[in-house]
Amino acid sequence: MGCARWYLLRYCATSCSATVRYVLLALKVCGHREREKYFLLPRHDIIMETLDAIKTRKSVRRFQDRPVEREKMNALLEAAVQAPSWTNNQCWRFIVVTEKETIEKLTKANSNFNSWLKDAPVVIVACADPKDSGDWNGLQYFMMDVSLAMHNLVLMATDMGLGTCYLGAYDEMKVKEILGVPDNIRVAAMSPLGYPLDKKTLRDKMKGAILRSSNREPIEKVSHWEKW
Ligand SMILES: Cc1cc2nc3c(=O)[nH]c(=O)nc-3n(C[C@H](O)[C@H](O)[C@H](O)COP(=O)(O)O)c2cc1C
Q1: What is the pLDDT of residue 49?
Q2: 3-state DSSP assignment of residue 5
Q3: Residue 104 and residue 62: Cα distance in Å, rounded?
Q4: CATH number of this structure's domain 38-208, picked from the four choices 3.40.109.10, 3.20.20.140, 2.160.20.10, 3.40.50.300
Q5: Which one of 92, 130, 147, 204 has the fewest CB atoms closer than 10 angstroms to its CB?
Q6: How far is Cα 75 from Cα 153, in angstroms, rounded to an integer?
Q7: Whose CA is closest to atom 10 on ligand 1?
Q8: What average pLDDT score do residues 217-221 get?
Q9: How far apart are CA 151 and CA 128, in angstroms?
Q10: Residue 134 to residue 90: CA distance in whole angstroms
């Protein structure tokens, strides 16, 4: 009798732990599925391969008056957070702004050079919590963490036919005030997001010429082999 009870107890314990393991595994799989669904967007949304996206990406400063679909914005954030980061601490924090009034305020917090920002349907503000990153040899790595994440987002956006443009000429304090960003958080980058407007005005062409935006220095000038 004692022996039968022992076997029953052992059977229950083993099957319980197996059940718990199966439940945990199922939860893990569901978690992955939840994340992966963003990468399983309909094929027609993914229109380029990586190299095409790298080569096609150009700063876009004029947008169609058309909202960006929520699932695409989610997919972009998912792409962003796949970036590498200092000890995988993922110091990035994103603010997705779609309210026109807030975008107008953000435009005012930018230099006049970026006055076109007000017509963007979305602005992504990339922040960093520096304490979740590190520094070494005087290099603060939160900027790199956020830049890598932003560039994942930017390339993925290009892939989806969406336009972006890195912005650096903003008043960080004003941006923080507008968006209620805590004191300890830095605003590391910002970009509009939207469907590009094809037509180029004379102003756009002049801006392109001033920035020489298609020009790239020859590889020989910017690279060394083996030593500097
Ligand atoms: C850190 C950084 C800050 C930038 N800030 C601005 C900006 O404030 N306004 C703007 O119109 N473009 C800005 N740009 C975009 C550059 O002007 C643009 O990337 C460069 O001219 C090359 O053109 P392309 O992006 O079309 O290849 C910035 C780019 C970087 C990387």
Answers
A1: 77
A2: helix
A3: 15
A4: 3.40.109.10
A5: 204
A6: 9
A7: 167
A8: 94
A9: 15
A10: 11
Kindly state the DSSP code that residue 124 receives in the 8-state scheme: E
Ligand 1 centre from 124 Cα, in Å? 15
In this structure, are residues 162 and 195 in contact, taking their beta carbons and an 8 Å threshold? yes
pLDDT in tens, 47-104: 667 888 998 999 999 999 999 999 999 999 999 999 999 999 999 999 999 999 999 9
Q: What does the DSSP assignment read for 150-170?
A: HHHHHHHHHHTT-EE--B--B
Atom of ligand 1 nearest to the CA of 213: 23
Q: Residues 145-170: what's their mean pLDDT? A: 97
Where do the domains of the chain lie? Answer: 38-208
Contact at 8 Å (CB) between 123 and 97? yes
pLDDT, tens digit (0-9, with 9 covering 90-100), for 158-213? 999 999 999 999 999 999 999 999 999 999 999 999 999 976 666 666 666 666 67
Going from the C-alpha of 56 to that of each of 131, 157, 201, the distances in angstroms are: 35, 11, 20
Which H or E element spans position 221?
A: helix 219-222
* Ligand 1 proximal residues by C-beta, below 6 Å: 58-59, 61, 113-114, 165-169, 211, 213
For residue 201, the SS3 value is coil
**What pLDDT is attached to residue 83?**
98
Q: How far is CA 59 from the centre of its chain?
A: 16
* CB contact set of 152 (below 8 Å; sequence gap of 6+): 79, 80, 82, 83
Residue nearest to atom 21 of ligand 1 (CA): 213
